[in-house]
Write a structure and sequence with these properties.
- By secondary structure, the protein is of the alpha+beta class.
- The protein has 2 domains: 7-42 and 51-64, no CATH class; 82-197, Lipocalin (Beta Barrel).
- The chain contains 5 helices and 10 strands, in the order ααββαβββαββαβββ.
- This is Lipoprotein.
- Keywords: Signal.
- Residues 1-27 form the signal peptide.
């Protein structure tokens, strides 16, 4: 008695939809099955924001998941020089408000303590300052030079600068969202300024 032929059964199994998916996705040898064959869609991953890839099989489609793109590296942290511009305040012979701008200029307003107004000759003094980086210090703690170039009232500005000088060299110890810390290598003095805002005065 002749053996039964298995080819039709095998053909029906191969042409079933799940088998087509398995053969298409895993082996990649068949582009489809049945009378209406279609080639498998090529899988291309665009350089940015890749979309899910659709693969055709026997006239149907299924979606291959695309792994999420690598997270972009965060921006490098700002250096102390980048964080230097801003407005700060501290108490010394009165209330001082220092506004540092990124163009190399600064303004300091001093509300003079009543005990020192006789010496300053004014209740309020406004000083215009030029600043620049120096070779002193390191990349993490750079040196900075401040020079008081003018002020009002003029007589008070001249009186104060004659007593305390018009130039000063500092090392920037730190500059962050809360404070600016300056160190004077000459007299080993540290000044701590409290940050008010990042907005520069006009």
């Amino acid at each position: 008695m002749p053996r039964p032929r298995l080819r039709p059964a095998i053909s029906r199994w191969i042409c079933s939809f799940p088998a087509c998916l398995a053969v298409t996705a895993l082996a990649g040898l068949l582009s489809g099955c049945g009378a209406d064959e279609k080639p498998a869609a090529s899988v291309e991953r665009p350089p940015a924001d890749p979309a899910p890839v659709r693969v055709a099989a026997a006239g149907d489609e299924f979606v291959l998941p695309v792994p999420p793109p690598l997270q972009e590296q965060g921006a490098a942290p700002a250096s102390v020089v980048d964080r230097l511009p801003g407005t700060y305040t501290r108490e010394s012979y009165g209330t001082r408000t220092l506004t540092v701008r990124d163009d190399g200029t600064a303004t300091m307003k001093v509300d003079v303590d009543p005990l020192y107004q006789w010496m300053a000759g004014a209740k309020t003094i406004t000083v215009q300052i030029d600043w620049e980086l120096t070779d002193a210090g390191t990349d993490e703690n750079p040196g900075v030079h401040f020079e008081s170039v003018s002020g009002t009232p003029k007589e008070s500005f001249e009186s104060v600068t004659s007593l305390f000088g018009s130039e000063r060299d500092w090392t920037i110890t730190s500059a962050d969202d809360e404070s600016l810390v300056l160190f004077s290598p000459e007299d080993e003095e540290t000044e701590i300024w409290t940050r008010i805002t990042d907005e520069s005065a006009g």
